[in-house]
Amino acid sequence: MNWRALTAPAVRTLYPVHRLHGAVLLLLLLSTLVLGMGNSLHSRLLWVGEQTWPNYYLLNPDATEPTCQLEMDVDAEVRKRVEAYKPDPDDLFSSPPNPEAIRTSLERNLELCKQEYVAYEQNLKHATPALGVFKSVEQGLADFLLENIELTKYLFIAMFALAAAVAALDADHIALRLPRNRAEWRLSQGVQFAVNGLMVASLNAYLGQLASSPGSESTSQLQYAWTAVFGLFMVINAVRFVNVPERMRAGSLALSSGLVLPLYSVMGLIAMSYFFLVDGYASGLAIYFGMMSNLSSMFINIGLYVLVGMVLKQTRLPELLLDVIKPWNLPAPMLASVIIFATAFPTAFTGASGIFILAVGGVVYDELRRAGAGRQLSLATTAMSGSLGVVLNPCLLIVVVAALNKEVTTTEMYGWGFWVFIMSATLFSLVVCKTEGNWKPRPAPGAFRASILQMKPLLPYVLVAAGVILAIWGVLGLRFNEYSAPLILPLVMLALVFLDANRDSRGDDETRLKAFWNRSSAAASDSAVHIGALLALIGFSISLGGILERSDIVHALFPESLTSPWIAMLVIVVMLTAIGMVMDPFGAVILVSATIAQPAIQLGIDPLHFWIVCLVAFELGYLSPPVALNHLLTRQVVGETEVLAAERTGSFWHRYERLLLPLAVMGPTLLLVAFVPMLFYAL
Questions:
Q1: Is residue 442 helix, strand or coil?
Q2: Do residues 371 and 511 lie in contact, with contact meaning Cβ atoms separated by under 8 Å?
Q3: How far apart are CA 331 and CA 393, in angstroms?
């Protein structure tokens, strides 16, 4: 792969463009946007109705005249009822009616009748055709939202099926390395076929249990849908097993061939081996994977954030932002430090670190190499550019933590996360400037003025983004925050793509609309690959976490005899880092919430402190071998050739800097975050 091509104008994509698949996925994601904004739209309609027609909630265009008696002689009616009383000889408790009670009841009925007539007169006064049409739209939307609460789950399954199928067809599931010969290709496809088959078997076992459980029809329908999805994956794996790409040369398996297995399939094999052979829980894989259905809105948000990242790649924004600092002629170490600080906030807005790397990692790597940075430093900075922002507002990972754990709030976590980011980014700058040297900038004359001038092309993007956000707030009353960001940002980015498709950045034979369509469909096509790979990894991470939940590992790590919060924190740091090394962060958060969080909190560790430590440990984990997810995604962006060509000369540090630099920064950061706060509450 030619990483320089990533900064070329026009459409940019790392994978074959499947415009049809991209269009369908874009339609699915936009459908989830409509459902997600449905409640806000309905609330806005109610507000408009109340502002237009007073007492809108009580108005009924189809109201009929009340049938109650509006005028009545109360005294005469009371006498009539008292005189009509006849004692029942068979009723031991029969007694004459109480005239005062009858009078009170009649007076209340008259008052209610008057209110009904007043409401009817109000309806006659305001019951215009416009009210009838508006009421029909508002109530129709309310009925649609109520009747389709479960629709989100099926939209998620459809999104996962399409995206993972594209990833399987293109053989783009995340693995430690790519197949290099025909034997390794068949090994990868064969193991995936086996894992998908085991999932189908587990789903059938679960369906057998549900068949004898009353009231489980809706759950059974979901399992049938999942069975069809994994059956489709088996068909794809079988076809790809037989049809080996021509580029694959002949060869045999080696000791390192196991590295070509997608991580999700390795996790599936481990989880199913435990559930089948140790726990006797054949339906375990299906049950834990099916947890994704219960959290479908959260995982749809991941898909929306991936789309945001891929659409961002189709604009010139990354290059325009980097143009602002070019006049300062920053040497490589200082540029790396600036990039770490600057990219943390876009990382938070793309939901997770991996998405940002996939979106603009190529641009980051490109600029560092142009500034004279070695491959090792460039790879390390690119991998870390998508990690430090996961503790900043409005990152989705913190929203998930707060949703699953009521002891903490997003406001608290974002507040402390900001200072953790400042500390880790500052430590990165110190380490890089110390080890690389030559960190002092050499700005050209007039650098400040040149930087200000480079901000001018950014102004239209800022205005359009602000305009879309304000328009959504004005129309729907939906404010931009960490909860609404996944719904608003895709619309903002699509508007920016339309703005970006001007004459300077499109082909001579392209109209703005055609350029917008080409870029949007290319972004959705890339999104399909990444959504499929990420969600498959998350789903099987959750299944792998089921081993920890069903075994006695947690009880062994936190025995009743353990009373020291300091020892507990040491165990937590090691355990969370190990989890982060092998699991996707979203799956890891779900696992930790269900297993480790409560025992740790009961041992005296502050909940907010625990979850900040958890996030930092995950940052360290997905920058650390053996999996090092961010390094794998960096390899996907810059190309395996660039990674293999990284310098192997110089000191031990410079030979392995891409791995050692993240450890040297995040390791001390984790220790400081874990143990320093305990000095204030655990002594």
A1: coil
A2: no
A3: 30
Q: Which residues lie across from 249 on neighbouring strands? A: 181
The token pair that represents 53 in the structure block: 């027609």
Sign of CA dihedral 584, 589, 591, 595: positive
Angle at 643 between CA 640 and CA 644, to 5 degrees: 85
Reference 187, options 195, 246, 201; nearest CA is 195
Of 196, 208, 193, 260, the C-alpha closest to 540 is 196
479: left (phi over 0), alpha (psi -120 to 50) or beta: beta
Give the count of beta carbons closer than 10 Å to the beta carbon of residue 192.
26
Which residue is it, tokens 């003025």? 449
Is this structure's pTM higher than 0.70? yes
Supply 489's token pair.
């940002």
For the record, the structure tokens of 510 come out as 């392209």
Q: Where does residue 379 rank: exposed (0-12), middle (13-18), buried (19+ CB within 10 A)?
A: buried
Residues 90-117 pLDDT 10s:
665 667 778 888 888 888 888 888 888 8
Which among 338, 436, 442, 407 is positioned nearest to 612, based on CA atoms? 407
**Number of Cβ atoms within 10 Å of the Cβ of 469:** 19
The three state secondary structure string of 204-223 is HHHHHHHHCCCCCHHHHHHH
Find out whether 296 and 156 touch, Cβ atoms under 8 Å: yes
Q: Cα angle at 388 between 332 and 620, to 5 degrees?
A: 105
Instruction: Please state the rounded mean pLDDT for residues 617-631.
Output: 87
The distance of Cα 513 from the centroid of its chain, to the nearest Å, equals 29
Residue 138, SS3? helix
Coil, strand or helix: which one is 440?
coil
